[in-house]
Amino acid sequence: MHVVYPLVVSALLFSIGVYGVLARRNTILVLMSVEIMLNAVNLNLVVFDVWLRDRLHSGQVLTLFVIVIAAAEVGLGLAIVLALYRNRQTIDLDRLRSLSEPTEPEPTDPGATNPGPVDPGPDGIQPTGPGSAAPAGAALSGEAGAHSPPRTQNPAETRGHTLAATRTRQSRFPAGSETDPRPGDAS
Amino acid sequence: MITVASLVILLPFLAAATGLLGSRFPRGLRGATPLDPGTDLNAGANRRAAWIAVLPTALSTALAIWLAYATWAATGQGGIEPGVPIGIGGQGAADGVTATFTVIETGSVPISVGLLVDGLAASIAVLVTVVALAVQVYSIGYLHGDRRYPSYSSFISLFTSAMLLVVYAADLLVLYVGWEIMGLCSYLLVGHWWEERANSRAAIKAFLVTRIGDVGFLFGIFVLGTAAGSFRIADVIAGVPEMSSGTLIAATMLLLAGVAGKSAQVPLHVWLPDAMAGPTPISALIHAATMVAAGIFVVARLYPAFLGARPTLDVLAVLAALGMLGAALAALAQDDLKRVLAYSTISQLAYMAGALAAGSPDAAIFHLITHGAFKALLFLCAGAVIHVVGSNLMSTMGGLRRELPVTFAAMTIGFAALMGLPPASGFFSKDEMLAGIEHSLSAGPLTDAAAFLLYGCALATIAVTGAYATRAWLRTFFGQRASRPEPVAGEAHAAVSEVPATMSRPIVVLAVPALLLGFARIGDVHWGTAALSLTVALLGAGAVYAVWRSAPQTDPARVLGPFRVPCERAFYVDSVYTRLLVRPVLLLARLVVRTDNRVVDGTVRGSGRATLRLAGLVRLVQNGNVQLYVTGLLAGVLLIAAGAVIFG
Amino acid sequence: MTEAPSYLSPTGQEIVFLLLGAVAVGSALLTVTTRQLVHAALWLVVCFGALAGCYLVLTAEFVAWVQVLIYVGAIVVLLLFGIMLTRAPIGRSADLDSPNRPAAVIVAIATAAVLVTVVVDGFRMAYVPLEPGGGSAGELGASIFRNWVLPFEVLSVLLLAALIGAIVLSRTDIRGRD
Q1: Within its chain, how far is the Cα of B273 from the centroid?
Q2: Most buried among B21, B321, B351, B419, by the most CB within 10 A?
Q3: Which of residues 86-115 of A touch B (CB under 8 A)?
């Protein structure tokens, strides 16, 4: 078999994956595109393994490893997506603009939510996600500290407050997913 | 002999260095009471500075006189005792004693640091040192209590030293060093009272105008030096016959620019009247002995080169003719006593230049020496008058002959010499020059037109000189004082009495050569020419006397009528320069400033602003959309990959 | 390297492979362009299945089965779970593409152009006669447990870490440190 055929297929698959990563808005679709790219690489590996007749079968073994890693990656990615969804109620990539320049509010893009100072609610009561939760929690404890002078009691207080808020939100999640009308539409 | 010459130069130089560095050194050494330390400290410093300045100059004077005597004795020229040099006409510069200390290799034409003592140099050196000594002594009284007297006297010493270097230099570039130091010193001294804006401006003007000439002078030296293959004056003069006339004309024209700048000849004379802003002794020094004499001296020194370039001599003759008559007329209309003397200096220097152009450099140098004596005398007397009256203006003077008898007598001698009345020295020197100019009508280096113009102007100038000298004399010492200005508080002008001894003694001493110097050449008098010039001078003087007699309180210059204002403004040369040169230069400067601000700085600032604006644009990309970032990243990777594929 | 036969007379294997590849590319295209999330996941299944067929044609049979098991069986199911858990709209939705799409098209086409050019240019003459058995479970197993044991073990640790991480990320009652 000509080696070019699988290689071209692989290249096309990879490009399609690139397109998906760059063009799709839904994070899960982006994950799928990443999987397509990984598969393109896998195809490459297999082709070269077969072509070069590797005694160690390193290409195919590496393919297996990549598949395993891809599985782990998808698992972790989905966990992140879920945490994201819990905190922001959206998994649209172009709405997650925490990385933008903070000083200038962009007048050209009114649809972009500016989380953090503008919308402190989800951040403040974020139960998980250690990275982004830390400054928000600190801010909260700072607010509480303004009221009560003994600083040592603050963590317990804020923790309790945050946990309570988390619980209410948690209780809303299952309820929301149960009462969400859209699954009903799909079924 | 050369050692003595170098001593003559070095003594004032050491005095300058010592005076500048050391006169304030033992701070409060003598009589510094705690109550009034400043004054006493100043007095002590001034006393020390005066000793430091006067003693080396006196020593230098003695050495210079001895040197002159030895030179004349050795060369056997000049004959009688205070003889006046002859032998500078043809190839005279080569027959002195010369020595080279060291030769600086430059890669092309070497510079030989050496001195040259001949009759010309020795006699001018005597003039310089005598006048400098007189000025130094005079300054002690004139600038009594001045805060900056130590630096002032040091600069005079430096000035003297520089002029002596010019006089004794055996190499054109060494000469140029002294020439430039003189320019610097004139700037420093004219601007001695720099607190007043006009004074510092006058100093800058003197500096700039002479500098314009000096550029030409330097290039003239280069042309001569490269043409002759050596900067040594003797070699240059020896090499003159082999040079092409074009080279000679170019070199001498360029040299003429420097001469005109230093000797205040017509196109570049404007700095000299303004230089009156300096202290009067400085005017005496500049006008009599040093700066202005340097120009004439250099022409005489390089006279063979000038003789080889006839067009240059024609130009010099025309400039001299215009300068002598114009400056004399300007002197006639001035009210400021010092400015009268300043314009008379320009006029007399033009006279010398005319004599040089007419081919009688001996007469020019003779007049340079007598003029140095009597002009220094006149300036010192004017300084005394001004010191007493407290004003420069002749309209505030009058009737001073009773109050200042010594000054009156001395100044009368000075004016007589200036007018060319016998038996004063000016009579003899002027006569010689006039004879030389007359001679050039028939035979000489000049073209007929130039010679005729020169002769006419010279005669007219003699008349005008007589007129303005008489006018100044009458206005200062006769008649009644029009108004007595209130004495300035804190200055010793309250009582009109004779000046201190330190000021009067130099005047008396200078009066002697001003009166008697001419008899050294009594055998050379051309009596026919002398009678003519005497008649013309007395005509001018008599006319002024008649006018003054009719109304002693008014200015005799009023007879000039509508012509008076142009004369007083020196024929608007300053205005023309302002219009033609100063304003365009200032405009250009402003343009340059604006260009610097707008274009150069604007480029810098604009690049900053452009960077900021560009950064603002690039910042828009930083909108937090991760996909955009990845897009850019992948596009970049693609570009690199494509580049690697295509060019790799 | 054996001598490469002409491109104009494709073998049966090549025809099968090209068909499967076409299916894979087409379904991948549909995955990234479809307007329904669930359809995207399903097209992904088709794509992965076609790829498994490709592996089979290329004699990598063990990889093909693993592909079917893990990709089609596990990963796609996980993705479907994710779709459901994020309450994504089932059915057509108009805003699955971000405004970045034109740039994405350009970059993707450029990527394809560069890759295909390079690959075609570089491997035009390469030819591999396919011989069955090279990718059997036995061979691969022997290779893994003889030569690749250490990476295998590291990989299992990685999987464990991913497992724990996923749990920590998904559980809502575990808070990060303040």
Answers
A1: 11
A2: B351
A3: 93-94, 96-101, 104, 106, 108-109, 112
Q: What percent of chain B shows pLDDT beyond 90?
A: 6
C84 lies in some domain: yes
Integer-rounded Cα radius of gyration of chain B = 30
Q: Which among A74, A107, B259 has a CA at the least distance from the CA of C71?
A: A74
The answer to whether residue B563 scores a pLDDT higher than 80 is no
Determine, yes or no, domain membership for B555: no
Q: Is A16 on the interface with B (CB under 8 A)?
A: no
Q: What's the pLDDT score for residue A36? A: 94
In terms of domains, do B507 and B359 share one? yes
Q: pLDDT at position C56, please?
A: 92
Q: Which domain holds residue B635?
A: 576-647
Q: Which of A94, A100, A106 sits opposite B627 (nearest CB)?
A: A94
What is the predicted ipTM? Answer: 0.90
Q: Does C157 map to a domain?
A: no
Question: Read out DSSP for B411-429?
Answer: HHHHHHHHHT-TTSHHHHH
Domain count across chain B: 2
Chain C residue nearest residue B625, CA to CA: C100
Closest CA to A36 of A51, A53, A16: A16
Nearest-by-Cβ selection for B631 from C100, C114, C118: C100
Q: Give a yes or no: residue B404 inside a domain.
A: yes
Note whether B567 and B333 are within 8 A (CB): yes
B315 and B463 part of one domain? yes
- What pLDDT digit, counting tens, does each position of B472-500 carry? 888 888 877 655 554 444 444 444 566 77
The arithmetic mean of pLDDT across residues C157-174, rounded, is: 86
CB contact under 8 A, B626 and A109: no
- To test the contact with chain B by mutation, choose from A94, A98, A108 the residue with the greatest count of B C-beta atoms within 10 A, namely A94
The answer as to whether B449 is a domain residue is yes
Q: How far apart are CA A52 and CA A67, in angstroms?
A: 21
Buried b (16+ CB within 10 A) or exposed e, B577-598: beeeeeeeeeeeeeeeeeeeee
Taken in order B28, B29, B35, B36, the sign of the CA dihedral is negative
Q: Of B23 and B280, which is predicted with more confidence?
A: B280
Predicted confidence at residue B41, as pLDDT, reads 60
List of chain B residues whose C-beta atoms are within 8 Å of the C-beta of residue A93: 625-627
Same domain, B317 and B365: yes
Q: Which of C100, C101, C121 has the most B C-beta neighbours within 10 Å, making it the best mutation to test the interface with B? A: C100
Distance from CA of C114 to the nearest CA of B (A): 7
Give domain status of residue C143, yes or no: no
pLDDT at residue A130 above 60?
no
Task: Reply yes or no on whether the pLDDT at A128 is more than 70.
Answer: no
B327 in a structural domain: yes
pLDDT (average), residues B134-154: 84
Neighbour tally for C149: CB within 10 Å: 10
Least confident of A150-154, B173-177, C80-84: A150-154
Inter-chain residue contact B635 with C110, CB threshold 8 Å: yes
- pLDDT for residue A182: 43
Please give, rounded to a whole number of angstroms, the shortest distance from the CA of B645 to a CA of chain A: 16
Which among B605, B360, B621, B327 has a CA at the least distance from the CA of B457? Answer: B327
Average pLDDT value over all residues in chain C: 87
Closest CA to A40 of A72, A7, A64, A69: A7
- State whether B505 and B407 are in the same domain: yes
The verdict on C107 touching B (C-beta cutoff 8 Å) is: yes
* CATH number of the domain to which C125 belongs: 1.20.120.1200
| Minimal CA separation from B609 to chain A, in Å | 19
How far apart CA B161 and CA B12 sit, in angstroms, is: 5
Both tokens of B114, joined, read: 């050496």
The tally of domains found in chain C comes to 1
CB contact under 8 A, B624 and A112: yes
